Fold this protein.
Amino acid sequence: MTTKDDYSSEEWQLLMEVPPIVGLAVMMAGKSGFGSMKEAWAMTRGVLDAKDGYEGNELVHALVDARLKDREHSQVEQLNSPYRGQSPEEILKSTLELCSEVKSLLSEKASEDEAAGFVDWAITVGEKVANAAKEGGFFSSGPKVSEEEAYVIEEVKKALI
């Protein structure tokens, strides 16, 4: 099992960044209107609730603990986010690049089980965001998952698996 000590600070930051940016990419791809608040909540819960679904995965647990411990820093980080003001396409491009980097990093340093758990966690965050709200706004009878959101999730899967 790998721990934070097995990764450089840049590698650790990359691992911490991927699950929420996957959620952000899915959120930006959809057109949920008021549902965006539900999607943002789903992203946060998907990132922070991972300890419940990944028992025995020390890497995922350590990343969640680090996020919980560093909440104040994370809020400042969001205000200074390099993704702020980017288009959905730019965010998707950045997300896929980070996912590719994580794939290489995990294959190099993590056990197969840890890597599989991390990948599942990141994809699950995206899926939770996609399923959080109907597309088209508050009174919409639109689908839960838009074509654009499904596309982002598939691209993320290709980049991570």
